[in-house]
Predict the structure.
Amino acid sequence: MMQVTLVRSVNGRLAGHKACVRGLGLRRMHQIVEVEDTPCTRGMVNKVNYMVKVVES
């Protein structure tokens, strides 16, 4: 599992990046969600790595 925090706004971002943030379960700034560490979620996190902070647990 890993904790993902949205640290930058999705306003004005590409549609694909917004979709990745939504797919991770993030809705608002500074929200923390715990997601399973799979290749799929890793790819989503890597795509929006400039907007999120990841803590592996």
